[in-house]
UniProtKB/TrEMBL annotation:
Biological processes, Gene Ontology terms: carotenoid biosynthetic process
Pathway: Carotenoid biosynthesis; phytoene biosynthesis; all-trans-phytoene from geranylgeranyl diphosphate: step 1/1
GO CC, alphabetical: plastid
UniProt protein name: 15-cis-phytoene synthase
GO MF: 15-cis-phytoene synthase activity; geranylgeranyl diphosphate synthase activity; squalene synthase [NAD(P)H] activity
């Protein structure tokens, strides 16, 4: 059984260098056909080529691909993962790739094929991989990860739910609605990460409050992501900002589309940045309760992402025509700083 999928998956995922098409999934008609053809061919060759057990070799390749994709798509995340223990970094790469592929369904080049059926099929694949039946090589890495770490399927299902929400909705009436979206697409990542990062045995906090911090780090990240990408999203006809709060500053969608940075816009942005910082600050508490070896990567991730907010301020709140950017030198300089934070706030001192 295991060998069957191994062989099948090995052929499906062709190029070594990760490319967008590799991230596409079954459920899209032409891909289905392609996959069926390959599976059939593979079943025939199996008779002449008796399978040998190569599970570990296969998994090694699967994780290598996850690593390459993570390194290619998310340079900063990747930097953070290099600070983790080997088993943990592999798990985070596998989770990253699954999240990225889920996001690509809605945002990527195959998004035109998007439909409720595609998401249903993706969810079915999720159940299969949790039950030890991965569909392709990248799924197989996650199957291995969920067998090693006590991951719950719920946040993964919720992320798919977030994609359902994203295709239905392009406006958020108030922060409550936006918060729900942020939970689905990013708070869930925090919940997926805790079982991998581990809670410190010395921690005096209870598990729910640590999960809550992790969730808040996801929310802070997503709010920051939204604030950074206002101009870019407007070009796609999307405004991920609370409509009622825009109105309080005399602003509406048209002001966002016109991409003009006015004093009203700056005032509005100050409040939004303050809110994002609130979530990061709340996440700090939990970061120090994680397993000793996981604090540095999480602290660095927190400080790096939060500094995008500083960059928006440095651009005088022009997130319409400029992309807030944290330069490589600044990113690297933040590593020793986050290291200091991670040791000085260790739960052993609480
Ligand atoms: C150490 C670390 C940061 C681990 C997490 C790595 C991981 C599994 C990331 C997955 C990210 C992903 C692809 C999510 C899909 C949905 C999505 C796109 C969310 C946005 C990410 C940014 O992506 P990007 O800018 O590329 O998006 P677009 O190009 O705009 O499409 C998000 C902003 C969400 C990211 C959320 C997190 C990384 C949550 C981090 C929380 C923890 C690591 C918990 C730590 C624990 C405690 C107790 C604080
Ligand atoms: N350390 C981190 N913590 C949380 N989220 C992060 C972190 N690093 C990156 N991200 C998220 O992953 C995305 C991709 O990472 P990447 O490092 O490629 O950043 P980028 O914003 O695309 O800019 P650049 O590639 O120029 O650094 C980021 O846009 C951000 O949303
Ligand atoms: Mn990005």
């Amino acid at each position: 059984m295991h060998q069957d999928f191994t062989i099948t998956a090995r052929v499906i995922v062709a190029p070594k260098i990760p490319s967008m098409p590799e991230l596409s999934i079954q459920g899209i008609p032409h891909t289905d056909l392609h996959v069926r053809e390959i599976v059939q061919r593979q079943l025939q060759t199996r008779r002449t080529n008796p399978p040998v057990s190569r599970k570990s070799e296969f998994l090694e390749e699967a994780y290598d691909r996850c690593r390459d994709i993570c390194a290619e798509y998310a340079k900063t995340f990747y930097l953070g993962t290099r600070l983790m223990t080997e088993e943990r970094q592999k798990a985070i790469w596998a989770i990253y790739v699954w999240c990225r592929r889920t996001d690509e369904l809605v945002d990527g080049p195959n998004a035109i094929h998007m439909s409720a059926e595609v998401l249903d099929r993706w969810e079915e694949r999720l159940h299969d991989l949790f039950n030890g039946r991965p569909f392709d090589m990248l799924d197989a890495a996650l199957t291995d990860t969920v067998q090693k770490f006590p991951l719950d399927i719920k946040p993964f299902r919720d992320m798919i739910e977030g994609m359902r929400m994203d295709i239905k909705k392009s406006r958020y009436e108030n922060f409550q609605e936006l918060y729900l979206y942020c939970y689905y697409v990013a708070g869930t990542v925090g919940l997926m990460s805790v079982p991998v990062m581990g809670i410190s045995p010395e921690s005096s906090s209870n598990a729910p409050s640590i999960y809550n911090s992790a969730l808040n780090l996801g929310i802070g990240n997503q709010l920051t992501n939204i604030l950074r990408d206002v101009g870019e999203d407007a070009l796609r006809g999307r405004v991920y900002l609370p409509q009622d709060e825009l109105a309080q500053y005399g602003l509406c969608d048209e002001d966002v589309y016109s991409r003009r940075v006015t004093d009203n816009w700056r005032e509005f942005m100050k409040g939004q940045i303050q809110r994002a910082r609130f979530y990061f600050n709340q996440a700090e508490e939990g970061a120090s309760e994680l397993d000793k070896d996981s604090r540095w990567p999480v602290w660095s991730s927190l400080l790096l992402y939060r500094s995008i907010l500083d960059a928006i301020e440095e651009n005088d709140y022009d997130n319409m025509t400029k992309r807030a950017y944290v330069g490589r030198t600044k990113k690297l300089l933040m590593l020793p700083l986050s290291y200091t934070r991670s040791v000085s706030t260790s739960s052993a001192f609480h």
